[in-house]
Specification:
- The structure is a single chain.
- The chain is an alpha/beta fold.
- About 40% of the residues lie in helices and about 20% in strands.
- The protein has eleven helices and nine strands.
- The strands form two sheets. The chain has a six-stranded parallel β-sheet with strand order 1-4-3-2-5-6, with helices on both faces.
- Helix 3 links the parallel strand 2 and strand 3.
- Helix 7 crosses helix 8 and helix 10 runs antiparallel to helix 11.
- The chain binds adenosine monophosphate.
Length: about 280
């Protein structure tokens, strides 16, 4: 009876000693641990990452933490959507084994003074508009990696530059963690799933898929730089506001295309009303 109840309720852990104790038991039992860090308000894209982790590992940990370090004071930290009860239900259904829900005090206790500063793929694109962002992401991911100690961690290509930054950090710091990239999960109309889509008004939601359509048009064009200008005009006409960037980059370095480029990626960030959308696609 007790076992049946335990099996039907996903284990929630909120501090480091309890997390470490559980991870040590799993490791002693020889379990391969998969990890999916998130900021919650979970959607089908997050759950696809959980499934990917489950396919590759014996046990899956998902963290939910809205990380203040990666938000600028002007950004949406306070209004970022939060739904712990709904998230836990979805994670249980997706086969997650443990959800880690640290508070800000657990991750950044008084006296916390350290930061990971990334260059390379962290330079440009997002950093031109959110200078604090990748330092905040790399610092929290390093902490979460050290707390969970996973064998592998799954990140979405939706945040393509973030995935490249995490890969670089893991390589540079010799972390014994396999990083798995997962393709972007989209609505039927092409809009990339995002927790921030909840901010969109019905009118904005109707305009939003134009972003993916325009990225596809650029990717299919024989003259991408001209096509980018056309896409910017089409997006403005569809009701989008400021375009932070639409840029064709080397998919490995995220720098400019060079003779050494093996794969190209088209990346975009732009505003629709008060919501900032990001998306990217491969370019053949
Ligand atoms: P977030 O909660 O937005 O910080 O995202 C947590 C993880 O989910 C990151 O690795 C994201 O790249 C990934 N993710 C977010 N949206 C999607 C999506 N539409 N498809 C696939 N992965 C996603």
């Amino acid at each position: 009876m007790i076992d049946a109840m335990a099996a039907s309720s996903l284990r929630r852990v909120r501090d480091v000693p309890e997390l470490r104790a559980e991870m040590n038991i799993w490791k002693t039992n020889g379990a391969k641990i998969g990890f999916v860090p998130t900021m919650g308000a979970l959607h089908a894209g997050h759950l696809d990452l959980v499934k990917r982790a489950k396919d590759r590992a014996d046990k899956v940990v998902v963290s939910i933490f809205v990380n203040p370090l990666q938000f600028a004071p002007t950004e949406d930290l306070d209004r970022y959507p939060r739904d712990e009860a709904g998230d836990v239900e979805k994670l249980q259904a997706a086969g997650c084994d443990l959800v880690y829900l640290p508070t800000v005090d657990v991750l950044y206790p008084q006296g916390f003074v350290s930061r990971i500063e990334m260059q390379g793929p962290a330079m440009g694109l997002e950093t031109d508009f959110r200078p604090q962002f990748f330092s905040g992401v790399a610092t929290v991911v390093m902490k979460l990696f050290n707390q969970v100690g996973p064998d592998l961690a799954v990140f979405g290509e939706k945040d393509f530059q973030q995935l490249a930054v995490i890969r670089a950090m893991v390589r540079d710091f010799n972390l014994p963690i396999e990083i798995v990239g997962a393709p972007t999960t989209r609505e039927a109309d092409g809009l990339a799933l995002s927790s921030r889509n909840a901010y969109l008004s019905p009118q904005e939601r109707a305009a939003a898929p134009e972003l993916h359509r325009q990225l596809q048009a650029v990717a299919a064009s024989p003259a991408p730089e001209t096509a980018i200008q056309q896409a910017k005009a089409a997006l403005a006409a569809a009701g989008f506001g400021k375009i932070d960037y639409i840029a064709l980059r080397d998919a490995d370095t995220l720098g400019p295309i060079t003779e050494a480029t093996r794969a190209r990626r088209l990346l975009a960030a732009l505003w629709l009303g008060k919501t900032r959308l990001i998306d990217n696609i491969a370019v053949a």
